Amino acid sequence: MTPASLPFSGSTPISRHHSAKAAEAARETRLTKTTSLLCLLRTAPRGLTDHDIVRLPGWPMSTVCSVRNGLLRANLIEARTDEHGLSPYGRTVTLWRALV
Q1: What does pTM read for this prediction?
Q2: Which ranges of the chain have pLDDT less than 50?
Q3: Class of residue 19 by CB neighbours under 10 A (exposed 0-12, middle 13-18, buried 19+)
């Protein structure tokens, strides 16, 4: 099994370098956050929006999206197609739920 790659980006060599270094530093907490998010989604049968998740563990939106996308790529969660949530701004947003 190949290790999961860490997300990083940047439009210049130095910004890519700094992004890669930050991703490497985040590796230590990635498994804990991934497990926490999956457990959180398992306790919410209706599902949770990204905004709900930001409020619960207090992570930044970028962390929520990154960890959630990893779970999505691993086919451990799915986006609900039959229902949606609301953002704090009154917009319809995706509800995410655990598959396992």
Answers
A1: 0.76
A2: 1-4
A3: middle
